[in-house]
Amino acid sequence: MPTFTALPTEIVEAWRAGAPDAYGNPPERHISTGAGNPCRHCLHHVPKGADMLILAHKPFEGTHPYAETGPIFLCADPCDQGGGADLPPILTSSPDYLIKGYGTDDRIVYGTGVVAPVAELHQRIAAIFANPTVAYIHARSARNNCYQLRIDRD
């Protein structure tokens, strides 16, 4: 079984304290609409009416052509770090997700990207990990390409 990996608590706590995002800006504070606001730390949706943060995130070390940067949401208040072997709630609210494999060099392993229906996510993840050059997988929104979480080999 793969491991669904949330953002590290230390980084999230720093952003909650006002640390700059990937573009050097402080996180923006907003109120959750209750739909479409997946927290990348607890891996649940930010509850309707709750404070949330919006910031630019680059889930890679360094800057290179494959180091995509984009918006993410976080619970503004402390939340428990999510993750593990079970499909997290933030990967169940859309009909499908973009998943793609990356090598140890943080480059896309071509031929691994697929828009997978939720019902087929585990099967598609297993197929990507069958390629020995894949070190990890990113799950992204199939509609907006926003980073959701990292998927690691077990």
Strand order of the largest sheet: 5-1-9-8-6-7
In which range does the helix fraction lie? 10-25%
Low-confidence sequence ranges: none
Q: What is the N-to-C succession of helices and strands? A: EHEEEEEEHEE
What can be said about the biggest beta sheet?
6 strands, antiparallel
Structural class: mainly beta
From the N-terminal CA to the C-terminal CA, the straight-line distance is: 6 Å
Give the count of helical stretches.
2
Average pLDDT rating = 96
Total number of beta strands: 9
Globally, the shape reads globular
Radius of gyration: 15 Å
In terms of DSSP E residues, the strand content is: 25-35%
Can you offer a commentary on this structure?
The protein has 154 residues and is mainly beta. Helices cover 11% and strands 29% of the residues. It contains two helices and nine strands, in the order βαββββββαββ. The strands form two sheets. Strands 5-1-9-8-6-7 form a six-stranded antiparallel beta sheet, with helices on one face. β8 and β9 (147-152) form a beta hairpin. The chain is globular, with a radius of gyration of 15 Å. The relative contact order is 0.22.
